Amino acid sequence: MWQALYDELKDKGFMVVAVAEEGRGAEHARPWIEQAKSTYWQLIDTDHRLSDLYNLVNVPQAIWIDEQGRIVRPPETAGSTDHFRRMDLKTRTMSPEDQAERLAARQAYLDAVRAWVTTGRYALPEGEARAALPKVTQEIAEAHARFRLGVWLRAHGDPVEGDRQMNTASALHPDSWSMWRQAADLDEVGKASGPDFWKRVQALGDRPYYPPPKL
Amino acid sequence: MTIILSPTGEHKVSTHDGLWMSAAHAAKATGWTLKPEGMCLAERCVPLPATAVKGDEVDVAAFWIKLGGPVVAAENGEVWALGAPADERNAALEGLAAPDFTLPDVDGTPRTLSQLRGKKVFLATWASW
User: Fold this and answer.
1) In Å, how far is B91's CA from the nearest CA of chain A?
2) Residue A215 domain-assigned?
3) Scanning every residue of chain A, which has its alpha carbon at the shortest distance from the alpha carbon of B83?
4) Count of structural domains, chain B
5) B99 in a domain, yes or no?
């Protein structure tokens, strides 16, 4: 997904780290990774540790980190848009206008990454970066603990209790699409984008599924 | 034996009555050491309520709750997870130093974020689902 960007910028002190939030583990992610033929890091995060550490709620989200290891853009949607919400579910297609807008938004995001690497633009001053951080609540902290426990129980032959823990996690952290969709996927491949997913998306109303980055 | 999933990894320890365990097992499971002043990690000590220590044994659940972290268990009581306290996560993020982590690549080779110091890093998530 990021290979062209990486190829273009790798000689300018740039690195891409792609992390698969993948409860089914490395072998499940392997076909996508091999197909991508990526030369940047492709890492496997079975219990969504990155989401816990960085307070993430969906994929794809990205964090920009400078040469000193400082966060210069907190977690934000990485190039995806909400146009999919208007697609024709029967044919799974979007209108040409929506397809064009979607591509343009993705291009604008990639251009911002390019500008950051070459000129430093779009790196937020500390105060702004701090203000843009989503806050971890007690409920979110407990949700991550239960989610991890749920993934472990599922991987160790207790899908019923694993599911129960993951459902509790989702209830504690309803903003996390990753928790809900991963739990659905572990229950059955495909369920994460099935009818229940679309019901949840519809229930968002005017709220975004992919909040656009404020570039 | 009880399995404990803690910020330091996955640990097998002997417990009774919830998460009562020897100080040695508590250190193994949490990384914190029992001292007269409480449970300690490097320079930091968290005083324990008198009801959470008995001789050489510690109630790790009580300690973890005192620390501010979530303590959750599977229904059968054989597997527990000790989560990071919300305040700790917020403080780490607000400091703006990117939290470090080590994760395996698809062939199992561990990679650590801080190995990339000196480069601009675009850290992005994806999933198959």
Assistant:
1) 10
2) no
3) A145
4) 1
5) no
B110 occurs within a structural domain: no
Domain extent at residue B15: 2-89
Residues A179 and A94 in one domain: no
Spell out where chain A has E strands.
14-21, 41-45, 61-65, 71-77
Instruction: For an interface test with A, give the residue of B72, B116, B122 to mutate (most A CBs within 10 A).
Output: B122
User: Is A211 part of any domain?
Assistant: no
CA distance A204 to A201: 5
Compute and round to an integer the Cα radius of gyration of chain B: 17
- The verdict on residue B128 lying in a domain is no
Q: What is the DSSP letter of A4?
A: H
Considering only CB atoms, A65 lies closest to which of B5, B89, B123, namely: B123
Task: List chain A pLDDT tens, one digit each, 215 residues.
Answer: 899 999 999 999 999 999 999 999 999 999 999 999 999 999 999 999 999 999 999 999 999 999 999 999 999 999 999 999 999 988 989 999 999 999 999 999 999 999 999 999 999 999 999 999 999 999 999 999 999 999 999 999 999 999 999 999 999 999 999 999 999 999 999 999 999 999 999 999 999 999 999 99
Chain A: closest CA distance from residue B12 (Å): 14
| ipTM value for the complex | 0.97
Q: What angle do CA A93, A99, A102 make, to 5 degrees?
A: 125
